[in-house]
## 1
Amino acid sequence: MNKRWLAALVTVLAVIALAAFGAAAHSSSTQNGGTFKIGTSSRIDSLNPYVAFNQDAYNTFEYVYPLLVQYDKSNSHFAPDFATSWKSSNGGKTWTFKTRANAVWSDGKPLTAKDAAWTINTDLKYASGGAANAAGLVAHIKRASAPNATTLVVRYTKAAGNVLGQFQQLAILPQHVWSKYTGHKGNDLKTFSNSPLVGAGPFKLVKFKKNDIALFQRNDSFYGEKPKADGFGLRMFSNEDTLVAALKAHEIDAIESVPGTAIKTLRAGFNIRSAPGVDQTDFIINSNPKKTAHRELLSLKVKEAMAHAVDRKQIIKVVFLGYAKPASTIIPPATGAWHNPSVEPEKFDLSLANKLLDQAGLKKGKDGIRRASGHKMSYAVITPTDVPSTNRTFQILQPDFRKIGINLTQRALDSTAAFDAMTAPNNKYLKFDLALWDWVGLIDPDFMLSVVTCAQYAGWNDSGYCNPRYDKMYSQQQLTPNQAKRKQVVWKMQKYLYGQKPYIWLAAQDAVWAVSKNWGGLVASPQGPFNSISKISLTRVHQQ
């Protein structure tokens, strides 16, 4: 057992029995209490919602902050969270939410609809600066107001079609804490470490050590369904082997995303659960039209050739051991009707890839590497070290790209440094060429569609892609209240991006998690048990 993990838990969660860290009672009945320990190879890169990039950070925000709505157990319908009910009026341009009465923040201050109105208006005011991460979530909103403590009124410039989907992602922040950090035209929002974190979710974050542990204690003053466990812990591992070994040694109770190589060995002693996932790996091509170096990567013919050099079957077999499907569009199949099934993955065909590059006039040198504008087609591929699949994926891509005359080298960086390198200098996206990463999508397609908009420069944009025609389609789907008609626009956008190729999509992963047989109650989700879709899963997890 990791002694640092145990000592930290004992120190911080003194109210939780030490026995919770041993083997749970071998009883089939439900037992409240105990601390559920989750292992991950991912990271919480920041506790600041205006800075955070990694998925586990947003999973954390789901459980420590109020959101107006969440998804239900089926992951297909919106359900109450801080809002108990909602309705639209004025032709869909006004939305009124009734919120919980007598709610409180973790520091004891009242939580009211005024906090929600302040958060929305702050994100609106600084959407082009410090609140850029949230800009898409408040698009087309004119203003928000709270006529009383339990009523939130949000007025839109035009009737929107993604209102609830946006508010399912927008964490409501305590005005009495965050209003101190709006200086320098809102840029100070990004400077706040957010520690100690004042929240109002079912759990309180009571300890955080970056790249190590995050400890959460049950919040008995939570306005909604109270957790059955005393708390949960997230332990961050540097590699997958030690992660799996810790589960086998019962140092942890679950792995939030099981490496494909470990699934078979864990089946005998643990419950393995899976669901079609919204996590997709991608090959990112810097598509900034203003980039000055290696402009051949802006060529659609070059991008198409690269797409035909991707052996998705081998990636799925080797990297994910079959627990994935070929990916083709920015909206994963697990989202259901939002995914456009007519957009199919490019076939693996090195002969066709070579032919396309020959047609583009990019000739091979004596070393087998092609030349473009006098320089070798040799590029560094940025890979985040806390996404282990990118390393194995690179090893598959490199030799095949060599066969079409493109030399790839790997540049492994932690996720923060990787994103900084991709957006450099000063969010202009000028210096990087290629990267491997993944995107964890949501059920509603709006967020994933937003990450390649011009507005997300300095925000979520990781490809440098900026296209006014695409942005117009993005705005159109936001302003289409009829969901059937909105789906048509979303399908059109997927097909358009497929042709533009800021991303070459690789694999749509299954969400696979492993849980000790001493714990039950986790709710299946396309993002796994620790997710940013709903508070239900870790609220209901219990000893058995």
## 2
Amino acid sequence: MGSRLASAISPYLQAHADNPVDWWPWGEGAFAEAARRDIPVMVSIGYATCHWCHVMARESFSDPEVAAYLDEHLVAVKVDREEHPEVDAAFIAAASAFTPHLGWPLTVFATPEGRVFFAGTYFPPEPVRGAPSFRQVLEAIVEAWTERRAEVEATGAAVAEALAARPDAAEARLPTPAALRDAAIELASFEDPQYGGFGSEAKFPNAPAVSFLAELGRQGDEDADALGRRLFQATAALRDPVEGGAFRYAVQRDWTEPHYERMLSDNALLLDLATGFGDALAAEQLAGFLLNVLRLPDGAFASAQDSESLIDGERSEGGYYALDAASRAGQQVPAIDEKVLAGLNGLAIGALADAGVRFARPEWVDAARHAADAVEARLVTETPDGPRLARAARDGRVSDAAATLEDYGGLAGGLVRLALAAGDPAPAARARALVAACIDGERVRPPGGGDPVLAARGIAVEADLSEGAVPSGAALFADAALRLSGLDGDTALARAAELALAPVVEPALARPIAFGAALATIARLVSPPSQLVIVVPDEGAASELVVQARAWATPGRVLAIVTDDEARAFADAGFELFHGRSTLDGASAAYLCEGTLCLLPTDDPAVLAAQLAATP
């Protein structure tokens, strides 16, 4: 029992390998088995650091009687949403027909053809306040399948038809600056005036939405800037005072009682905000967590750290983090999900690179370089048609899960930022190849297509539009394409960024709290960021120009501090921004461009200060 999961890449699947449930991994085999036995499929979706996933596993999936009933009447499939985001997106979309409370664990029941006829999230082992137990849900599913098959299949067909009928978003025009300001004003309506943050219940950092406000702030919107700073400062309550990493969210409105899992995505995105807002202390804490806790031996970053551990031999959710540094030393450290995800590592690479520049921490840039080398060694394969990404790897093995636009865009964006921070065009050239691999005429999509099991059943949905804690694939791709366009002047890349974001414009303006990263990139398309190249005579040379440039730097701007040789190397690699850039009579020189307009170079700090003061 459970042996099919024992060799899984995902630690989430491995954690269920000893369950008495006869789990199948995601794939054709499970559906073929269901068709052979003429029984439904239960798809259970979660991730390694999901607290309630652990709870449901202990309460129900470890119960031999429940497992025996489940195995007799259904084929059980276990899915790691981080390994298979397309599968998660497809079943989340279908589950929305049955429950407004979407999240994880996600429990979905489908026909052998993959058509969903019922879904929910966590089910308790015993009925609670009107909610049925998991065993009762299973019995109801079996009763419906055996006694009311026609009704079940009609429900599944109706859900599938509704999903298939969703219209493709037509290409949308970019919004006006006024429309973006209106979106920021709507975000302000969600602010909790008493305790800070968004909403009046559980508090999430929502870094993508704050990044949009930060971008408008860069462009001169003082109200958006002030709101973004307040929202970011409120998230300080989520940071572990010992190890610095930010927890997933706070259970209470006043930011107390954190939900203690710590995610690579959250901490990378919050590091970006710390850099943009110039918060050196927050940057130190967040970067410290990435480097000291999530960094793996080869330099890549693990995807998360669990909230649970054993404290004095007793299982505790968050108890480890209530201890001071000395007390933690003798306790079990919460488990690390060592799964390496391409797109999320790209976020961390870019965040560390930009923070290293802003705060003059070359060791952070070096860490970003080592991470990039490790991720590319694990996950990138060169083919005659260009680079191909794998989505995930762990323990020297690569997952067969299809890479998504999140992976291509996230890694490419991180490589561009690394190239600028390190003065090395090679990562930017590799980013350009990753972006090019996703451009298919007037369409933007990852090469090789999506998940084949979903496609074979006609139940795939667009997985890269809406955003939660992580920017969408569309936003990450557009960000990378736009950054590259600014370096080499290729308008086709800016066009690709617009194509990727076109379907997002309308829903993003209607519900900005759910599309922050997309709106941040849209704002940069509407008002292109400034680009500053500082050419210094020697690497690490002290210069007032460099000091000014570091203070000006944000993740939304393009900044490179390079030597003459590095500038020539960028130019030779086809990055037109660096063409003709050199020191002036051996002195450091600044070259500032706004969109397609470039100012005269200067070696005078006072002149540069005036130029930067007049630049968005």
## 3
Amino acid sequence: MDSRDRAPSRTLHRLFVAFFLLIVVGNTSVAGGERDAKPNVVLIICDDLNDYLTGVPGDVGHPQVQTPNADRFAATAVAFRRAYSNNPVCAPSRASLLTGIYPHTSGNLFWDKWFDNPVLANSRTLMEHFRANGYRVEGAGKLMHHHRRSDWDAFPLAADYGPTPHDGQRRTVHPTVPSPYRTVGPIDGSYGPLVNLSLSNPGWHWAYGGWGNGKVMRYQNDADRDPTPDERVATWAATRLGELADAKTERPFFLAIGFIRPHTPLHAPQKYFDLYPLDQVKLPVRKSGDSSDTFMNKVFKSSVKGLRYYRLLRESYDAPDAGLKRFTQADLACVSAVDDCIGQVLRAIDSSRLRDNTVVVLTSDHGWCMGQKDFLFKNAPWEEATRIPFIVRAPGISMSGGVVEQPISLIDLYPTLIDLCDLRGSTVKSESGAPLDGVSMKPLLVDPASQLWDGPEAALSMIHAEEDSITPMSIEDYYDPTKQHWSLRTRRWRYIRYNNAAEELYDHDEDPHEWTNLVDDPNMKSELLRMRAMLAERTGTR
């Protein structure tokens, strides 16, 4: 072949090689860009969801609870067996977890608006920090108890505690709830399935709304009705996730979803109540006289909600446990209802390209006591009120089906997301703010049995000594962390110290239901002293 004939061939070959390398390098660059891209985050928070849902196989939740969506999610993620709320009541718990600052650090101890607190106002919320790192930040439902719209790029659906019965004039209580429990009112005092209220109560209807009256929620039957507020939020979230998955922009997002249930009122479609036939409902494991060696009734008046609610519920039925059985059925129904909403969100993630680059967290703000120690409410220092589900999936990092035994708390969420998403910059806005109090749990996601976690041995919870305190509180005492009630939970022990110096100590290895207070057992003296010292170091309480 003439050299003149080979020249074009060599030229074409070079062009082909150059084109091939361009494709390879380009694809490698894209792949590297995808690997280096910051992950998206979906945060799902339920309200008042105790350990009936744990995500831990064989755990001690309610034996009948049906939460298939959360269970499937946990099998792909890491579940924390001992996860706890730092303040088991809505407002301070959410303010703490979304600012990463303990209530006693900030002084935001109870129902005050968090954004009026000087420390929290001068510290970045989790949403602000994500936005400062280039994320699009969106949310819906109940996240902060006191909502501040400016923290979000989009927030289309506010918190809605409905549906609630409405008699045509005002919100009221489900017609099946008897007195005296119905005197508690339309939020905490109402439970029962969605039914066509107007059939037996002309003029009655179901209503949407926050704490106000709200607009009509149309309900004929389960097949012909408007969606519940949680269903609205789930549908919005699933739709929005589909849009984000299809979007051309590479800007990462932080999407927070706040479901109300199983917060009271305990209303859900009838199909969820049908999962738990009343005559088959198992009551929470309790012990007669269990409150005798505890001290809540020594520091709070009998009018405090948890003691009063339990007393009124028992008085409302002829059989001693009939009311608690109905309340338990309603709570289980609401847990299964919110599990379906959770499932709708998870399916939107897992059926799209978001699956491999989206951190998903499922948790709650605190638990709820279901009659244990004669208490029916949150805001208590024991396991049922402080323990929460906490499940995290971080693609490429977390161990599928892993279970963490180390106690952690909600305060650790913020630094964990910073670590997982490589967020930069200070979370403190000015010298009046405070740094984060928690510790990243990333080592526990990589290896649930890791001994490398730098966090504390015990999870810390605070119960505010509110206006129902037996000892009158001055305004100074109201905001004084040393005048509150405290609870510490290690792997084995729970230690409680009240502001009158009364104490409780429980050995969870031998007593998982916290039935026997060991504080006066001489064999427990060294452990009691150790726990006292630990609490004093953490809180300044003596």
## 4
Amino acid sequence: MYTDYDRVSAFMENELKEQGKGAPCISTFRRSVRECKAYMEMQGKPYSADSAAEWLLFIKPQLPHVVYKQLRYTQYRIALTIVGDEVPKELFYLSIQSDFDRIPLWAQHSVSSFLEHSGIGDHFKAGSSTFLYRQIQDGLTVLSDITCRVVADYYLAHGHIRGVSQYLQYLANQCLVGPYVPESYNYIISSRILDLKGREAHWARTNEPEHDINDYHRAHCAILNELEEIGYSKTILQVFATTANEFGIFLECNHLSYSLAIVGMYLDAYRNKISENVYPVRRGLLMIGDFLRGKAYCDIPRAYQSKPQRDYPRWVTGYVESYLAERKRNHIGPSALDTDRSSIWRFVQFLDVNGCTSPSDINSTMIKAFHLDDEHKTAEGKNAYNVRIRGFLRYLANQNLIATNLVDALPTVNGTKVRPVIILSDEQSEILTQYCTEAENNGLILEAAVLRIATQTGFRAIDISMLKYENIDWVKMEFSLIQKKTRNHIRIPFSTAVGNAIWRYVLEERPSVKNEYIFISRFAPFDRYTTSQIRNLLGRALGNGEGNVHKLRRTFASKLLVSGSTTSLITDALGHISEGTIDPYLSTNGAMMRMCALPLSARFSYTGGLL
């Protein structure tokens, strides 16, 4: 009599557990199943949707509404699974069956037009009808009176109801309600709408030209469309859209227009009541302001484009993903994983083009052909990729997908282990020194400070970019930081010129904003100075556009070597682990290398006359 009921109930309970639902949710589900079955057994009735609905009517007066809704939802889901879609929702949700008939004709016409336009039948009829019915009870006479505040209050009072969001979006598309009304039907936004006092709003209006809510909405949509067309990442798009929506709702609820003064007041209130992290919010709102005033965007990157996704051939995609997941579990860093992806992608693309359709098709001939075809600028680069590919081949062999000896089919390329290191010439070093002096005299203290640190400490660009106040010991005049790349801690003394440049920058040029990083952009939203900006700065200083900051690091190490510093001291200054890693810098000390040269007469005798 209850076989289907027990089977469906057990299946749904397992489904809840797999979804990670908590004990209270599962306990409520079991209660609904148990008590409904006990009621039907007591009545001597087999399971049916009508019997379940009858039980719900029996228990409704005895329970709080919150508990009743949870028990009802369980029975409604079971009925849909056993009986099918022909179960009318009104059988379980009695309150929705008459709302459409309760609203006036103009409201019924609006709901009917929405349902016809959506093309999904009557699934959204109940929610939209109930929304209008409750608004009409509160005094609504025309659709244009539906505002952001009305919608936000409705959400906070009744929670999310299916169909309301879609109905509001339909009204917005038909220009029957104002901008940002559909976006107000959101828990996060509706629960934290900021209010300004009337006096403050009046003061803000009197200081500069304003742009009404419609102008603001057009600018918001135009910028978002541009970012989407260029191909920026989904995260950046989502942050910008959320920021613009929330500020638009703030303007509408406070009857304000866009102005920089209003933006400033909003950010202060946002920082105090919602979050101290206002920088992404500030960036988005100032971008919209630039657009409204017809100005060019500020020179800080507005967003960062996501890297193009490399698609692997279908026959190997699962194996690659499994291998990379295993590497990640072994705590391989993001940069190493990127190299893995790039190496394996080149390899499997070659195999796919040459007719490979499964790992079992891989043979030594294919691997050797790839080795000859894959070109790199250096032997080191070739070996770096081959090492990654051999790791993938070894993984396939461990999975018994290819022969074990195929790993050895990809050889190691012989190359010069030590070759001359390219460093700055004396003339280029003099140019940098002169540029720093002129930059300080011309008020470009940020550029002078960054270049002096790069030339006199050998820091990588990322370490300069992430330099914080806590990394400076002014008493000992030294930097103390953990390198971003190697995670090694280093302590490097700095000269008086470097210290003065940093001090002047902080006092005279740095924007007065809260930011843990020392070097920040001079324009809103005042993010930290990026490695790209440091490279561009070096290229401008040298006058050739070449921004190889690592060349400054090599120059710094080479000068230490020429001055007579020991290899252990140079290793510590660079933050390296092994002294062997500085061997390439030996080639920059020409005087010492000439002392190592052997005269020919020591090993060979010269015979014969002149030609």
